Amino acid sequence: RSVASFISSLIMVFIFAPKIILWLKSKQKEGQPIREDGPEWHLEMKRGTPTMGGVIILGALICSTILWADITNLYLWIVLYVTFAFGAIGFIDDYLKVSKNNHVGLTGKFKIFFQVIIVVIASIWIYKISPENIQGIVTFPFIKDSIISLNIFLFCIFSSFVIIGSSNAVNLTDGLDGLAIVPIIIAVSVFGIIAYLTGNIIFSNYLNLYYVEGSGELVILCASLAGAGIGFLWYNTPPASVFMGDTGSLSTGAALGIISVITRHEIVLSIVGGLFVLEAISVISQVLSFKITGKRIFKMAPLHHHFEKKGWSESTVVIRFWIIAVILALIGLA
Asked: What does the alpha-carbon distance between residue 210 and residue 146 come to, in Å, rounded to a whole number?
């Protein structure tokens, strides 16, 4: 079923993406607004490229998952709910950017407010349906049998930090053609393996992992997202025919976050998705440094723009970041 889900989502993207891209181009005459303070060549090369391509990924993901997965599985619906809801926020943000022809869409406070509401509902849902022995637990890689048990309030706070952090970190990474989608494919593939292992009582006991009954069904969703991601990459390779926009980056990042919470591998996500973490840290440290000292640490944040400013070509940055993502994923999986 995982293979079927992967193939069907891939085929859906190949069938519908060209038509959706043409429609987006017809509606977005000037394409996604480009930052004026970014690398100069962006203004020339990327102007006119439509955004909101995340709808392609979301459509294939949802349809393929429902087609092949066990729709009675509650974990499945929790992930789909969070993914779609974050995608909706991203869609509104993209729409405002395009309609105003300005790279500033929704305010940060507005996005965070609704993201918190979405995540709190999902967190309470997960907490209530979880067996008592894994209810609200946080596990640590490399340290066997070491856990922290959180009450429902603290669990909601922790989950919000993980999911919202993951979503916005992926969003910050999505700044070059193909840069974000490949690490997303890599990370979701790793979490597909983790979901299968934690959802299988034999493998989870053998590997000394906490058994999460029902989490194995998330393999179907992970395979679907990987297939949709590979299909989208076909149209997102340099020069990109379409950008995923916040519609795609916020939703896929949230999907990774909620899957890590369900499988109790939140800390492993920070390793597997280490590239996203580095991008987010570069932005945070840049802002703090400028506010405190008046000086910037990087030539430009997020980190990928810093290397562009240093003279690296787009393809060099993208491929080297992909290599980093593969290495971190293997470390996290180990």
From this structure: 11
DSSP state of 136: T
Residue 138 pairs in a beta bridge with 148
Q: Is 334 helix (H, G, I), strand (E, B) or coil?
A: coil
Residues 6+ apart with CB under 8 A from 130: 136, 212
Which three-class secondary structure state does DSSP give residue 131?
Answer: coil
Considering only CA atoms, which of 167, 11, 1 is closest in space to residue 71? 1
pLDDT of residue 36: 61
For residue 38, pLDDT over 70 is answered with no
Strands 137-139 and 147-149, by their bridges, are: antiparallel
Q: What angle do CA 114, 88, 222 make, to 5 degrees?
A: 105
Pick the closest to residue 229 from 202, 175, 189, 281 (CA basis): 189
Q: What is the pLDDT of residues 268-320, one digit of tens each?
A: 999 999 999 999 999 999 999 999 998 899 988 899 989 988 889 889 999 99
Amino acid at 151: N
| Residue burial 304-327, b: 16+ Cβ < 10 Å; e: rest | bbbbbeeeeebeebbeebbeebee
Q: Percent helix, strand, coil in the chain (nearest 5)?
A: 70, 0, 25
User: Is the pTM higher than 0.90?
Assistant: yes
Integer angstrom CA distances of residue 269 from 72, 111, 125, 292: 26, 22, 21, 30
Residue 31 backbone phi and psi in degrees, to 5: 70, -165
